[in-house]
Amino acid sequence: MEIIPHRYPMLMIDRVLELEPGKRVVAVKNLSANEPVFQGHYPGNPIFPGVLILEAMAQAGAVAVLSQPEHAGKVPLFAGIDDARFRRPVVPGDQLRLEVELVAMRRGLGVGKGKAYVGDDLKAEATLKFALVDGSLANGAG
Question: So where's the catalytic machinery, residue-wise (predicted)?
Fold first, then answer.
């Protein structure tokens, strides 16, 4: 919370385990049965939505980017998602481990390779493209 601007209910990471600013990050999201999303996705068979797994990966990647002093105060926005693959469902009780490696960054645009695991089981992966903007531009005041 000290690094990224996201807050409940859209804060998708609970803890950062490893951080190499500007290079890589490992973070976790603990999924309890009390998560509001499980009430409707799907009743009787709760599954954490793939789009929220991607959001969690992106937020983890944002920690790696925004932890660099030159990017402090910026807001990361999705610019694209490529090669997204969802291997197996993520369910209540899982601890989602998010690993993101930043592979390119130039002129406020970047690319990260993200993977989401539960234990050693790969659940999802994607190439995440993002833009860094000033906070005032992100909320339309720019």
Answer: 41
